[in-house]
Amino acid sequence: MKNSKGSIIAKKLLSDIGFDEITHLSMKLFVSGLGATLVEEKLHNSDGKIVRGKTKTLIKVNSQIPYESKKRFTIAHEVGHFLMHEKIEVHNENSNTLNWFVSTETQLKNGIQEWEANDFASELLMPEQIFRNETLGKPFSPDLIKYLSERFKTSITSTVFRCLQLDIHPLLVVFINNGTVKYWDKTSNWTYWIKDITKLTPPDDSVAMEYINADYEFIYSGNEKAQLISKSTWCNLNKYDKDTDFFEYCIPTKQYKTIISVIWEK
Fold first, then answer.
1. Strands 37-41 and 172-177
2. Residue pLDDT, tens place only, 27-50
3. May I ask the CATH architecture of the domain 170-265?
């Protein structure tokens, strides 16, 4: 999906307000400056909500969200709806609409507006040029993802997607739920043939399978988060290929039984 309306609007907004980024700006102040009101309260079965009235628009975020980075992305997503989708009067967000790592088909079922709002939030919180500058000359690693996440106050997941979206490094990213590969995506500069893995369990020799066997508990930390694997673990080899070393870095979420697996060449 190449719809870039959201990122275009976000770039224009930053230019119009004279900010290179809003990383250190209060989201409440930011939303207020756009003419809406941010309310943080307990929401049932919803991470965020936009409510348009005749004279006022409320942007609500669930106060029970445990991570500030997720609250920021939820708010930014709702701001995207506020600025781009005038026909939306009352709208709820959940893990499906806010999740980048679902198939294009599923995203389309949620509506192109959800893609646009996610694209807007990603550009707003992690502006392309600044994000690229922060990665120049730095090898890809879990430490780089952690640094970028802390630098832009974004979640590890959304930071990984931003790297994927901007072709920061040749990457394969696999989304696994309940032990089954649901979806995968790659950067445009990834040149290897990927095995037929969708709707199947991860390869037995993958790091993802280690996490599944460990019931989604964290089993690696520090420098060990990037585990050596073989190219043939996730990729098909032709008769001229050598089975070279790759890295695999997994981000498990025990609550939802999901794993985001990031693969790159050593």
1. unpaired
2. 999 999 999 999 999 998 889 999
3. 2-Layer Sandwich (3.30)
